[in-house]
Write a structure and sequence with these properties.
single chain; alpha+beta; 6-stranded mixed β-sheet; 2 helices
């Protein structure tokens, strides 16, 4: 949860949506940790990213010639699950065209389980 500097009031998000944004991040661990920290239990996390296979990206992500990152399904799911998210839906998609060619992508839908990572666990 996010705690304001000006008060001890707690604010938390019910839904985080990141469409074609994660292409600017490599390893998703820190970003997803922030998402889990600022989300209420039961909150949704919906995002798309460019798709890579484990053969193409043994670390779970790789930098493409375009300067964007592609991620494996395994990396995204493993990181999210480790932070208390549950995968609800997954779909391989074409998020956009680039230079006349389809970009391989995937779309994920997660929900944050009732027990979540707290600031003390970070």
């Amino acid at each position: 949860k996010f705690i304001s500097k000006d008060s001890h009031d707690t604010m938390a998000f019910d839904l985080i949506v990141a469409a074609d944004v994660l292409v600017y991040f490599g390893n998703l661990s820190n970003l997803f940790r922030v998402f889990a920290t600022i989300s209420a239990p039961g909150a949704g996390l919906v995002f798309s990213c460019e798709r890579a296979t484990l053969d193409e990206a043994p670390l779970g992500w790789r930098l493409l010639p375009s300067g964007r990152f592609a991620h494996t399904k395994e990396h995204a799911v493993d990181v999210a699950v480790s932070l208390g998210y549950e995968l609800l839906t997954y779909e391989q998609i074409i998020p956009r065209m680039e230079k006349g060619k389809e970009v391989r992508g995937h779309l994920f839908g997660f929900v944050l389980k009732e027990q979540q990572t707290t600031k003390d666990e970070l």
